[in-house]
Please model this.
Amino acid sequence: MAAQEIHNILLASGNREKAAVLQRFFKTGPGEYGEGDVFLGIQVPTLRKLSVQYQNISLSDTGRLLKSSIHEQRLLALLILVRKYSTGNESEKKKIYELYLKSTQFINSWDLVDVTAAHIVGAFLIDKSRKPLYRLAKSDVLWERRISIISTFHFIKHNEFSETLKIAGMLMSDEEDLIHKAVGWMLREIGKRHLPAEENFLRKYYRKMPRTMLRYSIEKFPESKRQSFLKGRV
Model:
C-alpha cells in the first residue's frame, strides 16, 4: 500500500517540461548512457522531503519502489534507504547493504550512485573487508564500477585513502568518461584532506591518466601547478 501511495504521489507531482529537460540532461536517447530512462520532472528537494515523510515504510516496499522504470521513484527509494541506514541497527544496516548490492541493475545513473554509494556501501564496509569494492571495480557494468570508487568517499572522510588510490589505479584505463570523472573527483577529495597523498599518486600516473580524470583531480590546484601537470612538466 505504501509503495502504491508513493507511486501515485509521484505521478501527480510530475512536470512535463521539466521531464523533457531531465531526459536530455541524463542522456536518455538511443545509444546514450541513460537510454530509455523515464523522468516525471520532479526536483530533488521534493524527493528529499518525501524521503523524510516515508522513511519508515518497510524495506520490502522500498525495494519495490527501487525496481521502478521511473527515475525519480528509484532515486526516492535510494534516499529512503540512506535514511533507514543512518538510523538502523547493525542487523538492519546489513539488510540495507545487501539489498543495495542486489539491486545495482536499478542504480543505473550517476546521480543515483553519487547520493547513495558512500552512505550505504562505504559506510557498511568501513570496518570490514573491502573485497566487494574490488569485485565491483572489475565489473562489466559501468554503474557498478562507479559504485566501487564513489563508495570510498566514506573512507576519505575518515582520512583513509588507500582503497581509493588502489581502485583509482584499477580504473585508470577505463573507457567510460563517467568513470574518469568519478575517479578524478575522489582524487580531488583526497587532496583536500592530504595533498601529498594525491600528488604522489598523480606523479606516478598523470602521464597516462585520461585527460578528464586528470582535469577533475587537479581542479583546485593553484594555476601554475595545474598547468605543470597538464603540460607534463612535473
